[in-house]
Amino acid sequence: MLSVLLRQCRVPRSTPTSGRLLSTSASNILDEHLLHRSPVHTEFFQASLPHLKVPDLNASVEKYLNSQRPLLTDEQFSATTSICQEFLKQDGPELQRLLLDYDKSNSDGNYVSDFWFDMYLRDRRSLVLNHTPFLAFSAAPEQPDPLDRLTNMVYSSARYQLTYANRVLKPEVYFLDPKLSEEKFYQRMKMLSRIPGHSRLAWAAAYLHKAFPLDMSQYPNLMASTRLPQTGRDSLRRYPDSRHIVLMRGGRFYSFDIIEPDGLSIVPASTIRARLSECLADSRPAAEFPVGVLTSADRDVWTKERQKLAHASKTNSASLEAIDSALFLVCLDESQQTSDSALCHAFLHSGDGANRWWDKSLCLMAILPVGEFAVSFEHSWGDGVAVSRYFNEVFNDSNRRPGLSSGQSESLAADSASVRRLEFDLDDSLKASIATCREQLSARTADLDLDFWQFDGFGKSSAKRAGLSPDSVSQTAIQLAYYWLSGGATAPTYESCSTAAFRRGRTETIRSATSATKEFCRLAGGSEPAPTDQLLAALKAASDAHSTLTKDAAMGKGWDRHLFALRCMSERRAGGAVPRLFTDPAYRKINEIVLSTSTLSMPAVKIGGFAPVSPAGLGVGYAIEDSSMGCVATAYKSSSRSSAEFMRCYQRACLLLADVIGKALDAKK
């Protein structure tokens, strides 16, 4: 068994290195400013992570057809089956061979990672609503002053950065055995680190402890990073020596350091608060021509405007450099709205986008008047694993050991000399471009329809007691809601699943609209639902099917990324035409996602969401906790969809599922 696992651990040509050797005194200084000090270095498992294998061609095509079955008529399915059989006999084997050869030459990554990055960076659409999800923080009653809480979040973010930059952030590990303590596990790994060749053994040793290390290749882009617009394809740039943040308020920019020049310690929390206060004390009106709006434009348009902006003056060039190189962005908004829907709108797009710089990898948002906080991130560089780790660390650290003590803010002195205003020189052409972009973005964000609802009294615990996967129950509720909304249709559905168990793994798709969910919707969705025992049996079948899809996706055995990579290979193949499989209307249809879904279940998350991925689609960010479930639904008003109507159907679906599962549990008593 161990030898098989070791064969999967293909060691890359190079291992990431960061941090530095410190003297004892410097190390002691640093320790005071860390989240923690891991017994093993941050990339301890990275070199030994399993390689994401290219799936079997026949298996992927079979799974693809299974996903197509609930979406197509018998005639359409027959035609698509014939096209798939043709693909397996003709183009498929050659493309599979080319992909396997490519994979062998790409030991640093996997067969799809570069194609996936390329897809994001070549997308010329605006980042706003397309690539910028958000997560809002749960409340912190022990920190009633919003500015104090923001200070502590900034301070904890600096702790996170110092911990990561010095390679002592604990490696990301999923623990399957609840009896194994993290402390005992890491101490055993520390002992392993003394064995020659341990980097090859690390993952296998963790596996034997029922612990699964996760990929951390995205982490370097979380902070001190940005997406830079370039014609045809953008790029990502890192600034490892960054010590400052940039704050935005009213479309204006301010910069100040949060890490000391020694790179070992954090600016005192009281000083950070004073610098935040200095920015808030600026009495100038909101910027008439907010430069950040330009980052919301089509990427090629923004590329040209940025070049004009940078070449207009040295002031502009210096301001751009300060924004690009900042650790992260802090955006202070002025909204007085307190409803969940209003907060979602504010965090998702901030109205006309005047107070954002959408290229920045990470943004900490604060609506101080109502004490609400969130993060958003630019999606090309990474996915939920890296962001949720940062999110949870900052939430826990800022609450458990805040840098700023209660009442400490009363005696703070002004620190205006350390706050730098970032200015821009704008000519008439740039002002006109800003005005146009602002108008276009306002129209787009005004078109976004959004609703939020939470159902209390039913959730994860009831689903588990009934022998059902909680995630499958949530997905079935979404499917039933759409069934009612559309008058009985089944839609192409995307559920994101992390493949971070593999080196440079990103995501795979769970195609959660299955024949089993379609059958449940048929039984439950009529004017007279089927008897409870039939509904429960159908729900169990849907749950089992979904669990199988989830397991396959997490293990890199879904079909979406495999066919995507084969299509990329066909486009690169010299003189080769694109196979009929990829021009089949059924293939195009299944990839025009109507229901884009992602789970946001974490105690630190109050609410989160994202926009639809297609003009006529719905974006559904959902959560299921022990005794509650809910979602944020988005749609475009200009389409035939309505988030309000979907939400009404979703409420009805949750009530029906709660009733079915409740009766089943009562029958067991």
From TrEMBL:
Instruction: Kindly identify the residues recorded as the active site.
Output: 379 (proton acceptor)
Query: Where does the Choline/carnitine acyltransferase domain start and stop, copy by copy?
Result: 53-649
User: What's a single GO MF annotation on this record?
Assistant: carnitine O-palmitoyltransferase activity
Q: Tell me a GO biological process for this protein.
A: fatty acid beta-oxidation
The Gene Ontology CC terms held by the record are:
mitochondrion
The record lists the catalysed reaction(s) as: 4,8-dimethylnonanoyl-CoA + (R)-carnitine = O-4,8-dimethylnonanoyl-(R)-carnitine + CoA
The protein's superkingdom reads Eukaryota
Pathway(s) served: Lipid metabolism; fatty acid beta-oxidation
Extract the InterPro entries matched here.
Carn_acyl_trans (IPR000542), Carn_acyl_trans_N (IPR042572), CAT-like_dom_sf (IPR023213), Cho/carn_acyl_trans (IPR039551), Cho/carn_acyl_trans_2 (IPR042231)
Record key words, sorted: Acyltransferase, Fatty acid metabolism, Lipid metabolism, Transferase, Transport
Q: Which family does the record claim for this protein?
A: Belongs to the carnitine/choline acetyltransferase family.
Entry-linked PANTHER family:
CARNITINE O-ACYLTRANSFERASE, CARNITINE O-PALMITOYLTRANSFERASE 2, MITOCHONDRIAL
Protein's recorded name: Carn_acyltransf domain-containing protein
Its source organism is Macrostomum lignano
